[in-house]
Structure formats: structure tokens, C-alpha cells
Specification:
The chain has 17 helices and 18 strands. By secondary structure, the chain is α/β, with parallel strands linked by helices. Among the domains are: 167 residues, 2-Layer Sandwich (Chloramphenicol Acetyltransferase), CATH 3.30.559; 176 residues, Rossmann fold (3-Layer(aba) Sandwich). The strands form 5 sheets. The chain has a 5-stranded mixed sheet with strand order 2-1-3-4-5. InterPro entries: AMP-binding_CS, AMP-dep_synth/lig_dom, CAT-like_dom_sf, Condensation_dom.
Length: 525
């Protein structure tokens, strides 16, 4: 049980999952079967072991629960693995194996045979192999020996060493302090940790961590060209001055309802210029915004609200507000704690601009929820300095500026929107709000790109493949204008370069620059 617990916790930590499965072998000779040890034949069986190892669970509790579960299953150890897989209905159940080779060698019998027959037995050993990518073999004894075997076509030596080190570290933690939570076990050795830190320092971009905040950068863009168009939303256009004033009024409203440094404000606003102003208004108060898609299921919204505990929420309309859970996540008080766009004053108090508090670069800017390894939304909090550092670090590569036109194609609850919004507005560019219906219609979106003269496009590879088919099919057609694209950034999912063959055949090196940024929420974008 100790070894199964250690291997299960190591896998859980390395994969980021609370529940993991691996295989283990059993002799197939139960103790309650008379004469089982003297029966001739192969009774060995491989069975799945499921370990529940949430980060906060003490190691001893994980081991106790595992032992109890294994005891309940003793009467079913005769079931073959193919039958278990068929019953489970989920295909392959595991890809690592833990084997405890505790079969005994009759040392006294060997000694007696040598004495009687004059034979000398020099060693007793066996060779075995499995088809699993990783097999851990434990040899109990006065000194426990552990062997980790792996398939070199699937893992390299360094990966195998990482697995083995993690396993041993959990074993050591179990022996040192069984009450320690699984998430507190240090999987890296002191040497490995030092190497990670040194490599990280060597790879870190040059330059200091940005000072200031997102509102500071936006204010600079407003001051530079207040009459320039900041946001285009259908037939409406907002200049930098107008967007700044609208966000000031929203900041005043939210401030009066408790928004400020160290707090969260929930947003459930349809894609629009008002949505962008609301984001800026939240950030101006020093609070962080929690973006909730207007069409998100109520139960998921409730989980995110219960996790973030925003001080106030801002919804599109009163009808939409009344369909939302309370801002504390409870479903029995719909709409409680929410304001709407109709509550935004027509003018700031005394027509005064909002005076933002001193916002630390380390202050939270937003929290975006990923699906989470357990299926429950997991909030990722990102600071102002993370966003600014991303833009500053990539500035030399992209050269964004006031002549660029961006699209807000993605939901503001998807981290790609952070790149789209602030890549445009912090450099004095123009942001085009794309209607939700247009994001699902490649032909309409292609027309928008040409009509708005978009220069910077951000897409997931799967969305771009559909768009590219349309663009390549329209190329040269009567009535179709030229694209103004200079940069296409891919992110959100893995890119298969082979899928871009048609694009390269058409444009070669003369088309827009294609950049595979990939990106994950935990690293800002």
C-alpha cells in the first residue's frame, strides 16, 4: 500500500490530476484458498489501481483510503483485465505498472539441496518485461530495491529519471511525515531545483519588471491621440477620449459599490464597446475583473462567483441581471449584488474624471477560469505586470502601433482577448468588436477583415483553417478587396504546420507574418 500510495501521489503531482490510475500485479493465489501456493500454473493477473490524491489530502489518509479500497476488491482479483476494461467502457485504463515482487525463495531448501547433492547454486534470478511505457518493480527485503523500467521509444532517460525521483521523494515524505499534504511534497531534489532556477534566470528576458499599471498605459495612449478611434462596434465608433470618459463613469459607479484594490468585480456584458469600457473601469478602481460570458450556464457562473466573491457585478441589462446567480454564487437570490449598464451615470460626478488609486504592478488585473483538471472551474489570477511584461517583451518582434487595427474575436472570458484588447488600446490602435454571429461565420468574418482593414488577426488554428479556406477561395474574385493583414497570431491550441500548405502556396513569403504563440492562461496569454 505504501508503494502504491507513493506512485499514485507522484503521478497525481506530475500530471496535475487528483485521480490517477495505474496497474499492479497480483499472484492470483488468495490466502483463503487451501493449497494455493502449491498449485502448478500461471495465476498472475494485472488489475487497475485508482488513487485519489487531492493536493490538500494528508499522505496517510490517501494510503488508508487506498488500503480500504483494495481490501474491498480482494474478492474480485480473479477478473481479467480485458473484462474489467469492457465493463469500464473507457478503453485503456492505465499506462504505468507497479509490481511488488514479494515471492519468496526457499533459502533453507536450497541450502539443504546443496548439502545433500553437492550442488552449488550461485544465483537465483528471473528476467521479465512488459509492454507498458513505465514499469516500477519493488523488491522488498532488509533493504528495499526499486527498479524503474521504461520504453526508450516513448521516454528519454531524463524523463524516466524525473519519474523515479518523484516516486522516491514521495516515499521519503511518507516516512518522514505521513500527515503532510500530498501537494506539499517537494518532488525536486536540491540539485534539480537549483538547476531549474539557474536555467530560468538564463532564459528570462532582459529588462526590468514593468512599473505602473494597465490604466497608466491606457492614459498615456489617450493623451497621445485623444481623437483617434479606439473601438469600433458596428456602426458606432468611440474615440480614445470618449472611451476614457465612459470608463471613468463606470469606475465612479463601481467605486461607490465597494470596488477597489484587492477586490474582484464580476462582468457579464455582451461583446460591445461598453464591455471594453467596463473592463477599463474595473481596472481604474484597482479591482480585478472576473469575465463571465453572457451565455454561460448558471451553475458554472455560480461556481466562479462563489470562488472569486466579487464585491459587485455589472450586467448588460436588468433582464440579464435577473437571470444571474447572486454575486456570492447563490442561486436562491438571482440578481442580488448586480448593477447594469443602465445604472452608468450620463456624466461623472461633477464631470470629474476618475482619479485612480495608486495601483501596484503586482495587483491582480483579472481572473480567468480554465476548465480545471477536475471539471470544476479553476481561477487563474493574472497581475498588471504580467500583461505589461508580455506586451513589452514582444514589442520588438511585432512592432504594434497606432496604425494597427485589431479584432476582438474571442470571448473576454478566454485569455486570448487580453492580448487583443490591450495589444490594440495600449499602443493607440483600433479595436473592432466582432459580433458573436460573425465569429461563427467565416464568410462574414472575411468580409469584416477587408471592410475594417484589419492588420493584426489572432486566431486558434482550427478557426483559422476555416477562415483560410474562405479567403483563398475568394482571392481575386470580383468585388473582393485586398486584405490589409500584416500579422496573424496563433494561440489556444497546437498548430499543425502541414495544414497551412495551401496558405503558403498562395502567399509564399509575401503574405502576412504567421506567428505560433500558443500560450496558456497561467502564463498570461
Amino acid at each position: 500500500t505504501v508503494h502504491q500510495t507513493a506512485w499514485g501521489v507522484a503521478l497525481a503531482r506530475l500530471t496535475g490530476r487528483a485521480d490517477v490510475a495505474f496497474g499492479t500485479t497480483v499472484s492470483g493465489r488468495p490466502a483463503d484458498l487451501d493449497g494455493a501456493e502449491s498449485m502448478i500454473g500461471l495465476f498472475i493477473n494485472t488489475l487497475p489501481v485508482v488513487v485519489h490524491a487531492p493536493p490538500r489530502a494528508p499522505l496517510a489518509d490517501i494510503a488508508t483510503a487506498l488500503q480500504a479500497g483494495r481490501t474491498e476488491l480482494l474478492g474480485h482479483e480473479h477478473l481479467g483485465l480485458p473484462h474489467i476494461q469492457q465493463l469500464a467502457g473507457i478503453g485503456k485504463l492505465f499506462d504505468t505498472l507497479l509490481v511488488v515482487e514479494n515471492f519468496g525463495v526457499d533459502s533453507q531448501g536450497l541450502a539443504d539441496a546443496q548439502a545433500a547433492g553437492g550442488l552449488t547454486v550461485r544465483s537465483v534470478r528471473g528476467e521479465d518485461a512488459t509492454h507498458y511505457p513505465v514499469t516500477v518493480v519493488v523488491h522488498p527485503g532488509p533493504e528495499t530495491r526499486i527498479a524503474l523500467r521504461y520504453r526508450p521509444d516513448l521516454l528519454d532517460p531524463e524523463q524516466a529519471r524525473t519519474l523515479g525521483t518523484a516516486y522516491v521523494r514521495v516515499l521519503e515524505a511518507l516516512a518522514a511525515d505521513p500527515t503532510a499534504p500530498a501537494g506539499a511534497v517537494e518532488l525536486l531534489t536540491a540539485q534539480d531545483r537549483r538547476r531549474v532556477l539557474e536555467d530560468g534566470e538564463a532564459l528570462a528576458p532582459e529588462g526590468e519588471v514593468p512599473n505602473g499599471s494597465i490604466p497608466d498605459r491606457f492614459a498615456a495612449a489617450v493623451a497621445l491621440n485623444p481623437a483617434a478611434t479606439a473601438v469600433t462596434d458596428g456602426d458606432r465608433a468611440f474615440s480614445y477620449r470618449e472611451l476614457d470618459a465612459l470608463s471613468d463613469r463606470i469606475a465612479h459607479l463601481l467605486d461607490a459599490h465597494g470596488a477597489g484594490p484587492g477586490t474582484f468585480v464580476a462582468l457579464s456584458v455582451e461583446p460591445s464597446a461598453e464591455q471594453i469600457a467596463a473592463i477599463l473601469g474595473v481596472l481604474k478602481t484597482g479591482a480585478a475583473y472576473l469575465p463571465l460570458p453572457a451565455d454561460a450556464p448558471a451553475d458554472r457562473v455560480g461556481l466562479q462567483l462563489a470562488s472569486a466573491r466579487p464585491v459587485v457585478g455589472l450586467a448588460t441589462s436588468s433582464a440579464h441581471r435577473d437571470s444571474l446567480p447572486a454575486t456570492d454564487g447563490s442561486a436562491d437570490r438571482p440578481g442580488a449584488g448586480w448593477l447594469t449598464l443602465d445604472d452608468i451615470p450620463a456624466a461623472a460626478p461633477g464631470d470629474a474624471p476618475y482619479t485612480a488609486p495608486g495601483i501596484s504592478p503586482h495587483a491582480a488585473a483579472y481572473v480567468i477560469h480554465t476548465s480545471g483538471s477536475t471539471g470544476r472551474p479553476k481561477g487563474v489570477v493574472v497581475e498588471h505586470r504580467n500583461v505589461l511584461r508580455l506586451l513589452d517583451t514582444t514589442d520588438d518582434d511585432f512592432g504594434f502601433g497606432p496604425d494597427d487595427v485589431w479584432t476582438l474575436f474571442h470571448s473576454y472570458a478566454f485569455d486570448f482577448s487580453v492580448w487583443e484588447i490591450f495589444g490594440a488600446l495600449l499602443y493607440g490602435g483600433r479595436l473592432v468588436v466582432v459580433p458573436r454571429t460573425t465569429t461563427r461565420a467565416p464568410e462574414e468574418f472575411a468580409a469584416l477583415l477587408r471592410r475594417e482593414r484589419v492588420t493584426v488577426l489572432n486566431q486558434t488554428p482550427s478557426a483559422f483553417h476555416q477562415l483560410a479556406d474562405v479567403l483563398l477561395g475568394q482571392e481575386g474574385a470580383a468585388g473582393e478587396g485586398e486584405l490589409a493583414l500584416r500579422t496573424v497570431v496563433f494561440g489556444g491550441e497546437a498548430l499543425d504546420p502541414a495544414r497551412l500548405t495551401g496558405w503558403f502556396e498562395r502567399y509564399g513569403g509575401g503574405g502576412p507574418e504567421l506567428v505560433n504563440m500558443y500560450g496558456i492562461t497561467e502564463t498570461t496569454v
